[in-house]
Amino acid sequence: MSEEASDVDRLLALVAAAQGRDTRLTSIQAGLLVAADLGIARDSRAFARILGIAHSVVLRELNVLAEREDVLQIVKRDPRTMRVHYTLPPRDET
Length: 94
Hints:
- It is a single chain.
- By secondary structure, the chain is mainly α.
- Helices cover 54% and strands 10% of the residues.
- The protein contains four helices and two strands; from the N terminus they run ααααββ.
- It has helices at residues 3-21, 27-38, 44-51, 55-66; strands at 73-77, 84-87.
- The protein has a two-stranded antiparallel ribbon.
- Strand 1 and strand 2 form a beta hairpin.
- Helix 1 crosses helix 2 (27-38) and helix 3 (44-51) crosses helix 4 (55-66).
- The longest helix is centred in the first third of the chain and has 19 residues, at 3-21.
- The radius of gyration is 13 Å and the shape is globular.
- The termini are far apart.
């Protein structure tokens, strides 16, 4: 098995685990959270490009997540490119 295939398997496993912890998450929403956590993508266009999906789909899922402030926070919006930068909220270490 190639390293790339094992990375994909790991990513898919992390997405499935995120969905297992929060059944409200779609696979794209869980992927956004995992990508932010791993530093793979922290903006909508990068995420869409990496996964080969429409940016509009990513924006829709990102906006749903942003309504839940405990899950994801919008950092910056670029009105010209429609790119949305996001981050995970600080984790409570207690």
